[in-house]
Amino acid sequence: MTQRKKKIVIVVGGPGGSGTSTISKMLSERFDVPRIYAGDLYREEAKESDIESFEEFLQEMSKGGNSLDLEIDSMLEEYVLKGDIVIDSKVFGAICKKKGIECNVSIWLDAKLSVRAKRHLNRENVKGIKRLVRYIQILLNLKQRYKIDKEKYHRLYKIKYEKPSLYYDIVLDTSNLNEGETFNLILGKIKDGRYITE
Predict the structure, then answer these.
(1) What is the pLDDT averaged over residues 63-83?
(2) Domain 9-192 classified CATH 3.40.50.300?
(3) What does the domain layout of the chain look like in residue ranges?
Protein backbone atom coordinates (compact mmCIF):
# COMPACT_ATOMS: atom_id res chain seq x y z
CA MET A 1 0.00 0.00 0.00
CA THR A 2 1.45 3.36 -1.04
CA GLN A 3 1.60 6.07 1.58
CA ARG A 4 -0.84 8.91 1.11
CA LYS A 5 0.98 12.22 0.63
CA LYS A 6 -1.80 14.79 0.98
CA LYS A 7 -3.47 14.99 4.36
CA ILE A 8 -7.21 14.37 4.48
CA VAL A 9 -9.80 16.71 5.99
CA ILE A 10 -13.46 15.63 5.88
CA VAL A 11 -16.23 17.70 7.50
CA VAL A 12 -19.66 16.19 8.16
CA GLY A 13 -22.64 18.24 9.32
CA GLY A 14 -26.39 17.99 9.73
CA PRO A 15 -29.18 18.26 12.30
CA GLY A 16 -29.71 15.68 15.06
CA GLY A 17 -30.80 12.27 13.79
CA SER A 18 -29.61 12.82 10.22
CA GLY A 19 -26.83 10.24 10.56
CA THR A 20 -23.76 12.44 10.97
CA SER A 21 -22.28 10.53 13.93
CA THR A 22 -22.59 7.13 12.25
CA ILE A 23 -21.32 8.30 8.87
CA SER A 24 -18.43 10.32 10.30
CA LYS A 25 -17.31 7.25 12.28
CA MET A 26 -17.48 5.12 9.13
CA LEU A 27 -15.50 7.71 7.15
CA SER A 28 -12.94 7.89 9.96
CA GLU A 29 -12.44 4.12 9.76
CA ARG A 30 -12.49 4.03 5.94
CA PHE A 31 -9.76 6.67 5.56
CA ASP A 32 -7.93 5.68 8.75
CA VAL A 33 -7.94 9.14 10.34
CA PRO A 34 -9.22 10.28 13.77
CA ARG A 35 -12.71 11.74 14.26
CA ILE A 36 -13.52 14.79 16.34
CA TYR A 37 -17.14 15.17 17.43
CA ALA A 38 -18.01 18.76 18.37
CA GLY A 39 -20.90 17.50 20.53
CA ASP A 40 -18.42 15.80 22.87
CA LEU A 41 -16.65 19.11 23.43
CA TYR A 42 -19.97 20.72 24.39
CA ARG A 43 -20.89 17.81 26.65
CA GLU A 44 -17.58 18.11 28.52
CA GLU A 45 -18.46 21.72 29.24
CA ALA A 46 -22.03 20.77 30.24
CA LYS A 47 -20.69 18.31 32.85
CA GLU A 48 -18.79 21.13 34.52
CA SER A 49 -21.92 23.28 34.78
CA ASP A 50 -24.81 22.90 37.24
CA ILE A 51 -27.40 22.48 34.47
CA GLU A 52 -29.10 19.07 34.64
CA SER A 53 -29.91 18.21 31.01
CA PHE A 54 -27.79 18.70 27.90
CA GLU A 55 -30.79 20.20 26.07
CA GLU A 56 -31.21 22.78 28.83
CA PHE A 57 -27.47 23.50 28.73
CA LEU A 58 -27.59 24.21 24.97
CA GLN A 59 -30.59 26.49 25.36
CA GLU A 60 -28.92 28.39 28.19
CA MET A 61 -25.73 28.73 26.12
CA SER A 62 -27.69 30.16 23.19
CA LYS A 63 -29.09 32.93 25.37
CA GLY A 64 -25.60 34.22 26.13
CA GLY A 65 -22.83 35.51 23.94
CA ASN A 66 -21.95 32.03 22.63
CA SER A 67 -18.29 32.38 23.53
CA LEU A 68 -18.18 28.57 23.91
CA ASP A 69 -19.26 28.12 20.27
CA LEU A 70 -16.47 30.42 19.11
CA GLU A 71 -13.95 28.65 21.34
CA ILE A 72 -14.91 25.18 20.08
CA ASP A 73 -14.96 26.27 16.43
CA SER A 74 -11.49 27.75 16.93
CA MET A 75 -10.32 24.40 18.33
CA LEU A 76 -11.78 22.63 15.27
CA GLU A 77 -9.85 25.01 13.01
CA GLU A 78 -6.61 23.94 14.73
CA TYR A 79 -7.43 20.26 14.09
CA VAL A 80 -8.10 21.03 10.41
CA LEU A 81 -4.79 22.86 10.03
CA LYS A 82 -2.97 19.76 11.30
CA GLY A 83 -4.88 17.61 8.79
CA ASP A 84 -5.85 13.92 8.64
CA ILE A 85 -9.12 14.38 10.51
CA VAL A 86 -12.86 13.86 10.23
CA ILE A 87 -14.82 16.68 11.88
CA ASP A 88 -18.41 15.97 12.94
CA SER A 89 -20.01 19.37 13.57
CA LYS A 90 -23.37 20.90 12.67
CA VAL A 91 -21.93 24.06 11.19
CA PHE A 92 -18.18 23.74 10.71
CA GLY A 93 -18.43 22.92 7.00
CA ALA A 94 -20.21 26.23 6.46
CA ILE A 95 -17.58 28.03 8.55
CA CYS A 96 -14.84 26.52 6.35
CA LYS A 97 -16.61 27.82 3.25
CA LYS A 98 -17.11 31.30 4.73
CA LYS A 99 -13.53 31.59 6.01
CA GLY A 100 -11.83 29.89 3.07
CA ILE A 101 -10.50 27.07 5.27
CA GLU A 102 -9.34 24.24 3.03
CA CYS A 103 -10.87 20.78 3.39
CA ASN A 104 -11.08 17.89 0.93
CA VAL A 105 -14.82 17.49 1.14
CA SER A 106 -17.70 18.83 3.23
CA ILE A 107 -20.83 16.71 3.59
CA TRP A 108 -24.29 17.73 4.81
CA LEU A 109 -26.78 15.06 5.83
CA ASP A 110 -30.45 15.73 6.46
CA ALA A 111 -33.69 13.80 6.91
CA LYS A 112 -37.36 14.55 7.54
CA LEU A 113 -38.10 15.64 11.10
CA SER A 114 -40.32 12.59 11.75
CA VAL A 115 -37.56 10.24 10.54
CA ARG A 116 -34.94 11.94 12.70
CA ALA A 117 -37.21 11.72 15.75
CA LYS A 118 -37.82 7.99 15.15
CA ARG A 119 -34.09 7.36 14.87
CA HIS A 120 -33.53 9.01 18.25
CA LEU A 121 -36.45 7.05 19.73
CA ASN A 122 -35.10 3.72 18.47
CA ARG A 123 -31.99 4.24 20.60
CA GLU A 124 -34.16 4.20 23.71
CA ASN A 125 -35.88 1.22 25.31
CA VAL A 126 -39.37 2.76 25.61
CA LYS A 127 -42.62 0.86 24.99
CA GLY A 128 -46.39 1.39 24.96
CA ILE A 129 -47.91 4.81 25.56
CA LYS A 130 -44.58 6.05 26.96
CA ARG A 131 -43.08 5.50 23.50
CA LEU A 132 -45.62 7.84 21.89
CA VAL A 133 -45.09 10.49 24.60
CA ARG A 134 -41.32 10.21 24.19
CA TYR A 135 -41.60 10.47 20.40
CA ILE A 136 -43.50 13.76 20.74
CA GLN A 137 -40.92 15.05 23.23
CA ILE A 138 -38.05 14.21 20.87
CA LEU A 139 -39.90 15.75 17.92
CA LEU A 140 -40.40 19.02 19.80
CA ASN A 141 -36.78 19.01 21.09
CA LEU A 142 -35.38 18.54 17.58
CA LYS A 143 -37.63 21.28 16.21
CA GLN A 144 -36.59 23.66 18.99
CA ARG A 145 -32.90 22.77 18.58
CA TYR A 146 -33.07 23.50 14.85
CA LYS A 147 -34.66 26.88 15.52
CA ILE A 148 -31.99 27.75 18.11
CA ASP A 149 -29.15 26.63 15.83
CA LYS A 150 -30.52 28.52 12.84
CA GLU A 151 -30.72 31.77 14.82
CA LYS A 152 -27.39 31.26 16.56
CA TYR A 153 -25.32 30.45 13.47
CA HIS A 154 -26.78 33.37 11.57
CA ARG A 155 -25.99 35.68 14.48
CA LEU A 156 -22.44 34.36 14.95
CA TYR A 157 -21.37 33.72 11.37
CA LYS A 158 -24.11 35.06 9.07
CA ILE A 159 -24.65 31.46 7.94
CA LYS A 160 -27.98 30.48 6.36
CA TYR A 161 -28.39 27.20 8.24
CA GLU A 162 -31.46 26.26 6.21
CA LYS A 163 -29.52 26.45 2.91
CA PRO A 164 -26.67 23.90 3.21
CA SER A 165 -26.12 23.73 -0.56
CA LEU A 166 -24.49 27.18 -0.28
CA TYR A 167 -21.67 25.73 1.80
CA TYR A 168 -21.33 21.96 1.38
CA ASP A 169 -19.86 19.90 -1.48
CA ILE A 170 -22.24 16.97 -0.92
CA VAL A 171 -25.81 17.47 0.35
CA LEU A 172 -27.81 14.31 0.96
CA ASP A 173 -31.29 13.49 2.28
CA THR A 174 -30.99 10.24 4.24
CA SER A 175 -34.72 9.85 5.02
CA ASN A 176 -35.10 6.73 2.85
CA LEU A 177 -31.56 5.38 3.21
CA ASN A 178 -30.02 3.05 5.76
CA GLU A 179 -26.45 3.50 7.09
CA GLY A 180 -24.83 1.29 4.46
CA GLU A 181 -26.67 2.91 1.56
CA THR A 182 -25.81 6.39 2.81
CA PHE A 183 -22.14 5.51 3.29
CA ASN A 184 -21.78 3.88 -0.14
CA LEU A 185 -23.52 6.80 -1.83
CA ILE A 186 -21.14 9.25 -0.14
CA LEU A 187 -18.08 7.20 -1.09
CA GLY A 188 -19.32 7.19 -4.69
CA LYS A 189 -19.76 10.96 -4.68
CA ILE A 190 -16.30 11.45 -3.13
CA LYS A 191 -14.77 9.30 -5.85
CA ASP A 192 -16.78 10.86 -8.72
CA GLY A 193 -16.00 14.38 -7.50
CA ARG A 194 -12.31 13.48 -7.05
CA TYR A 195 -12.43 15.05 -3.60
CA ILE A 196 -10.01 12.43 -2.27
CA THR A 197 -7.64 10.37 -4.39
CA GLU A 198 -6.09 7.27 -2.87
Answers:
(1) 80
(2) yes
(3) 9-192
